[in-house]
């Protein structure tokens, strides 16, 4: 028998939380809520459907999920916190799917479910410390929820499998971090069918996942056509942060020097950013500028550069367009950007470091994950 997932020490969904979501809706116009959600998306499918949803359903359900598979990098930690808080501010209820069974299917942590669930608890601790607004969040363990409603879940998975051929499903396997031509286990073929089923199982109105999950979200919309379902899930796909090395389109845990982890100390953050690819005058493909755009500005609403008077003096940028113009012209140099970026990132990560240094349970979780 598989072990039961450990309890998640987060506030339960309460009447007060529901009132808070309703209050958020009452305090914002339809356009303000729409713009807030669109601000998350690099791509939205479909904007008109999103606006209609917000008009007709005061508290839509947003689905996000994660595979507990090791230490958490800053894109998972900070960007997810920013996006979840925006969704809650816009009046959404957020269901975060702790995909422990999926990590086992994908052979993460050697397929050891107990280790996978430890990683899941560690990741939740990070989001709590990072400032995720948990009032509108419900964490759900896939193994537990599927077992509780197996008679609902597995027929749905089977029907999705029946309505798609192997070629269509294997095209979706990139969602697992696998290439199209990689040899897959039989278990991994289940994965896209199950992730597609999750969207309907959780009664999600909106799928808020990265661009790397786009294929399976589109599979869910196609499935709606197959079953003649009118209301399709709306897809809000967020931007994928690159790694720090030249040409790394996606941040990777497998190369620790190319990604900042949520519990990295100040010296590690400073060193990684100091060594990062950051060509002068070039914005396209510049990971340091992407960090500023997708992390620093959403967090602080500004970017502060400290430099000597003969180098232009201190300057506070109010938006990315202003910063980009200075960078392209050469008025802002990589040697100015890097220390300012490191300072901002260290400030964001400080509450997480403090939590893992002072909370004994969190410290044990981190050490266990690092050893695994």
Describe this protein's structure.
- Belongs to the class-I aminoacyl-tRNA synthetase family.
- Pfam families: tRNA-synt_1b.
- One of its GO terms (cellular component) is cytosol.
- The protein has 372 residues and is an alpha/beta fold.
- It has two domains: 27-238, 3-Layer(aba) Sandwich (Rossmann fold), CATH 3.40.50; 266-371, Tyrosyl-Transfer RNA Synthetase.
- The protein is built from 16 helices and eight strands.
- Helix 4 packs parallel to helix 13 (287-300).
- The longest helix has 25 residues, at 334-358.
- The radius of gyration is 21 Å and the shape is globular.
Secondary structure blueprint with pairings:
Blueprint: H1 15-26, H2 30-38, E1 43-45, H3 47-56, E2 61-66, H4 74-89, E3 93-98, H5 100-105, H6 113-130, E4 137-141, H7 142-148, H8 150-162, H9 166-171, H10 186-201, E5 206-210, H11 214-226, E6 234-238, H12 266-274, H13 287-300, E7 303-305, E8 315-317, H14 320-329, H15 334-358, H16 360-371
Parallel strand pairs: 2-3, 2-5, 3-4, 5-6
Antiparallel strand pairs: 1-6, 7-8
Helix pairs in contact: 2-3, 4-6, 4-13, 6-15, 6-16, 7-8, 8-10, 10-11, 12-15, 13-15, 15-16
Describe the structure in brief:
With 372 residues, the chain is an alpha/beta fold.
CATH class category of the largest domain: Alpha Beta
- Derived from helix and strand composition plus strand pairing, the structural class reads alpha/beta
Distance between the termini: 22 Å
Q: Specify Rg, calculated over alpha carbons.
A: 21 Å
Strand/helix succession: HHEHEHEHHEHHHHEHEHHEEHHH
Kindly state the number of beta strands: 8
Number of domains: 2
């Amino acid at each position: 028998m598989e072990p039961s997932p450990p309890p998640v020490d987060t506030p339960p969904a309460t009447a007060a939380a529901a009132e808070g979501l309703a209050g958020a809706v009452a305090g914002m116009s339809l356009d303000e809520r729409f713009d807030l959600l669109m601000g998350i998306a690099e791509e939205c499918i479909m904007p008109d459907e999103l606006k209609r949803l917000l008009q007709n359903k005061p508290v839509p359900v947003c689905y996000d999920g994660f595979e507990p598979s090791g230490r958490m990098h800053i894109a998972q930690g900070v960007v997810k916190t920013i996006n979840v808080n925006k969704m809650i501010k816009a009046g959404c209820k957020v269901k975060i799917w702790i995909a422990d069974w999926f990590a086992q299917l994908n052979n993460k942590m050697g397929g050891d479910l107990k280790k996978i669930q430890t990683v899941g608890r560690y990741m939740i601790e990070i989001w709590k410390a990072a400032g995720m607004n948990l009032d509108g969040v419900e964490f759900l363990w896939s193994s537990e929820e599927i077992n509780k409603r197996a008679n609902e879940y597995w027929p749905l998975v089977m029907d999705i499998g029946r309505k798609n051929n192997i070629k269509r499903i294997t095209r979706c396997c990139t969602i697992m971090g696998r290439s199209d031509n990689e040899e897959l286990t039989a278990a991994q073929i289940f994965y896209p069918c199950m992730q597609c089923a999750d969207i309907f199982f959780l009664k999600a109105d909106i799928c808020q996942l990265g661009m790397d999950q786009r294929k399976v979200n589109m599979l869910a919309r196609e499935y709606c056509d197959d079953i003649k379902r009118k209301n399709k899930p709306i897809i809000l796909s967020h931007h994928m942060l690159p790694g720090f090395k030249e040409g790394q389109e996606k941040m990777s845990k497998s190369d620790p020097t190319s990604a900042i982890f949520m519990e990295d100390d100040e010296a590690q953050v400073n060193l990684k950013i100091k060594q990062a690819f950051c060509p002068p005058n070039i914005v396209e493909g510049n990971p340091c500028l992407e960090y500023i755009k997708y992390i620093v500005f959403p967090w602080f609403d500004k970017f502060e550069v400290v430099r000597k008077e003969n180098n232009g003096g201190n300057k506070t940028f109010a938006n990315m367009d202003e910063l980009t113009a200075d960078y392209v012209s050469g008025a802002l140099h990589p040697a100015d950007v890097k220390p300012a970026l490191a300072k901002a990132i260290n400030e964001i990560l400080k509450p997480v470091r403090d939590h893992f240094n002072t909370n004994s349970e969190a410290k044990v979780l981190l050490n266990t994950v690092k050893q695994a």
